[in-house]
Amino acid sequence: MALVFHKLVSVNEALKLLEEKLGGIRPLGVIEVPLLESLNKVLAEDIRAPIDYPPFDRSMVDGYAIRSFDVAGASDVTPVQLKIVGKASIGSVPESHVGPGEAVEIATGAMIPRGADSVVMEEYVVRKGDTLTVYRPTAPGENINQAGSDISAGDYVLRAGTLITSREIAVLAGLGISRVKVYRPPKVTVFSTGVELVPPGELLATAKLYDVDGYVITSMLNELGAEATFKGILPDSYDAMKSAIADALEKSDIVITTGSTSAGYGDMIYKVFRDLGAELIVHGLKARPGKPTAIAVKDRKILFGLPGFPLSAMMNMYTIVAPVIMIMRGLEPNVELPKVKARLPFRFPAGRGFMELIPVQLVQNVDGSLSAYPLMTGSGSVAGIGLSDGFIAAEENREYFDENEEVTVNLFSPSLRIPELNIIGSNCPGIEVVLRVAGLTKSSRVISVGSMGGWIAIKRGDADIAGTHILDENTMQYNVHMPKIMGLENEVYIYRGYARRIGLLVKKGNPKNIKGFEDLLRPDVVIVNRNKGSGTRVLLDMKLRPLLKGERPEKAING
Amino acid sequence: MALVFHKLVSVNEALKLLEEKLGGIRPLGVIEVPLLESLNKVLAEDIRAPIDYPPFDRSMVDGYAIRSFDVAGASDVTPVQLKIVGKASIGSVPESHVGPGEAVEIATGAMIPRGADSVVMEEYVVRKGDTLTVYRPTAPGENINQAGSDISAGDYVLRAGTLITSREIAVLAGLGISRVKVYRPPKVTVFSTGVELVPPGELLATAKLYDVDGYVITSMLNELGAEATFKGILPDSYDAMKSAIADALEKSDIVITTGSTSAGYGDMIYKVFRDLGAELIVHGLKARPGKPTAIAVKDRKILFGLPGFPLSAMMNMYTIVAPVIMIMRGLEPNVELPKVKARLPFRFPAGRGFMELIPVQLVQNVDGSLSAYPLMTGSGSVAGIGLSDGFIAAEENREYFDENEEVTVNLFSPSLRIPELNIIGSNCPGIEVVLRVAGLTKSSRVISVGSMGGWIAIKRGDADIAGTHILDENTMQYNVHMPKIMGLENEVYIYRGYARRIGLLVKKGNPKNIKGFEDLLRPDVVIVNRNKGSGTRVLLDMKLRPLLKGERPEKAING
């Protein structure tokens, strides 16, 4: 019997429920690691400087350590002569003391000898044997980096909860800290489920699909700083599934499965979670894509059953898994995706009771602003995952996004590479070929929105080129009527691209002896159709019309 | 003898020279790795889809596969009855064929049985035994995800030179690709040099410093996607240094040393590079910080001798090492640091013949805009490295940045956490204590610009609170005269913070029997002074003035 999602829970409610049932989501524990291994982990202790930095007064230049009072009147015409009494080298305590009328040669970074209050740069002196002639005065403290001037012993330099990057490592190393207390990154085990799944690299039988989720979820977890292990596709047997998940739960903080959560058939995951003694706290999420989601907790561990469609599973990673991972790592729950502002090219419904994450492609308008084209590929798409620059989020109480509305785009990459050439409209594999020959593949972007969408993109200033094949039924000519309709007369050029040869593809040897369109009407012939509205289908329907004598093609043809 | 930088080379010239001498900087080679290991590597091949995606027509919903023509007129009042002839399950080729008046039960993702042209959702039907009552019409293609509609076999889906993130992994997995050709990441060996250096964790003798560079450079390289190995501090012997670097050069694509490049004393690195048979192509860089830099090439390998000051070494990493690493990885040379626009709070000199990278701290002004406070800490600072949010770059031909000039800030972190409370002015360790007690450490930022800088920050709207101790010599009162001077009357509140007790710290037992300021004039007494301009020094000078009877304190006191 089909399982129905009786009570959908919002993403925020789900996080609150998790918080409640776990007695708070929090960092998992503290480990001590060598400094270099702390990179990209989160500091679990406040760091107070154990020493001054620099630990001693040091010279900032190559020159001579002197007493500023001695050279108070020095100039090019009234130079002052000092006696060189020694040398201060890097890494050693200087043996010489600088008395009145004396100087000590000193290197950048060397310790200032006692008695000196400044360093004169070697550019402003002339040395002859032990005699130094100084042509400039110095101020007390000049060219001296004073002990503790950068960091004083006891200063709080880094706070618990700081993500350790190379910069934090610099500060820690400078203070002599070789081992660091960090939060232990969460251990996550990932499984795919689904009888239809085949691992990439193996042969794909009909009606089967390659497993995407296991790979993308594991990679995302690694990107999020978790320690993720992918354990492959779970066998389609209750017992095998249960024992694999039980074992994973033993060894990890979080177990994530994908697939087998939709209400239709495979409700096995819910049963396995429950039978493992976990409390099912979410059973359907008010998220689109991402509704068929199960969340269960056992002791302080979490089981996520994510939907099988890759885009759905990924979006759930952003909305509900990532915040949990972030908190467990010791960070704030919001994932640090970079953001840009963009405007939407058209109005479309979004939200309507669900938190909806919509992947978008960005293009730069002629006026320099950004437009975000929603990828209407559906959650079953994998191409859309690769094509999108980021996503926009619709809140639950939103009904639609308006044309030209300004939205915040969460970027997948920190820096946005704006394509120089935007080709928006009806798509054709030939465009890719042309771009490759022209060496433009990296600097261009092709967005498929159909012929009409292309004309609108030209009108908005988003598109540089639009592919179009719109038939004017009055003149039976393509495209040339459009500039007038769009108010773009004298503003666009229409170039004839190329013609297509369209034919019927038959089995080798043409066993059914198909000669023309009339054969398509035979009951023993099945045709694989192009979708309605496509140019080919329009042509086919046109050609069939006289043969059908008023009958609807859907009725007369096995398509 | 001191080594002088005779001919400084700009960063761009240095990159051009590298390009020339290496016969082009380019990716190092191609390796094939399992899909999950390709994360964060760069694709070395164009990927054409080997299969359609989806590979078969599949249902997008749970429901029944039907012929749309059969239910053309279906509605709540005129439902249509169909005969259920089978079931299409996920992962199997459906055994049943949908003839006129027939339906096949189907799950989301299952293959569409032959004969059906659409799927009616289970919400719009009622099933009784083998009879299906349909209350809604369907359009041909409805709820069907057509084979190849997402990706057609032969489509170019990913291009060589693409950084592989979790999203690219999703696309590759979906197409069944289990092993990927990627560019081999560059192998880099890192050494520190300097007799003054001690590894963090060991005891620090006087005049010694903890090694920062080895740790920060290695971490930065790992962040940049190179395979970096830190081999510690090189011994201070020509032979040992030469053999260690020769060995590293054998095993790596790039060898980086830090320190021993300044013109004063330690010119050992240049000699070692040359004696290893490498051609020294850069010997001094028009970069600030970062001038004392050596670059040499041997065969197709590069030796970088970076300066010893951590900030100098880091800035060179951004300007010259990172572009080389990026190209060798197969990416564009520019490092993908996120950027924001900000305005500068005051005018300051920058550039003047050098490419200058200036670390900045960002604060949000009351009007919502960002101000970038340059960290004037000097290249010897390590605190500055940790405190800065990013850096601004001054081109060689620039003379200064102007007050309120808009600049682009290259951010160290992808997302900027704007502190809620900005405390800008004269600093005091007590502020940190107060913030900790108040639980405000995470949401606040303390920027030290001195008392006057604090007043200017208040005036600009950057600072919420400013620490100040400016004495009015006319009234001998602190701070209360400032609002009038700044034109901020009735706009600021002055709260009295706390008073300091100032004293003289002497050796245990006070062996020199120091009782007061007059003892400081004794020739056998040496005082460790606060810097000129500090409140304490002003007080000390004031107290000494009557005792000195017109003599300058620098002359009368051993400071």
Automatic annotation (TrEMBL), chains A, B:
InterPro entries: MoaB/Mog-like_dom_sf, MoaB/Mog_dom, MoeA-like, MoeA_C_domain_IV, MoeA_C_domain_IV_sf, MoeA_linker/N, MoeA_linker/N_sf, PBP_domain. The lineage of its organism: Archaea, Thermoproteota, Thermoprotei, Acidilobales, Acidilobaceae. It comes from the Archaea. This is Molybdenum cofactor biosynthesis protein. GO terms for biological process: Mo-molybdopterin cofactor biosynthetic process. It comes from Acidilobus saccharovorans (strain DSM 16705 / JCM 18335 / VKM B-2471 / 345-15). GO terms for molecular function: molybdopterin molybdotransferase activity. Pathway: Cofactor biosynthesis; molybdopterin biosynthesis. Residues 189-327 form the MoaB/Mog domain. Pfam families: MoCF_biosynth (PF00994), MoeA_C (PF03454), MoeA_N (PF03453), PBP_like (PF12727).
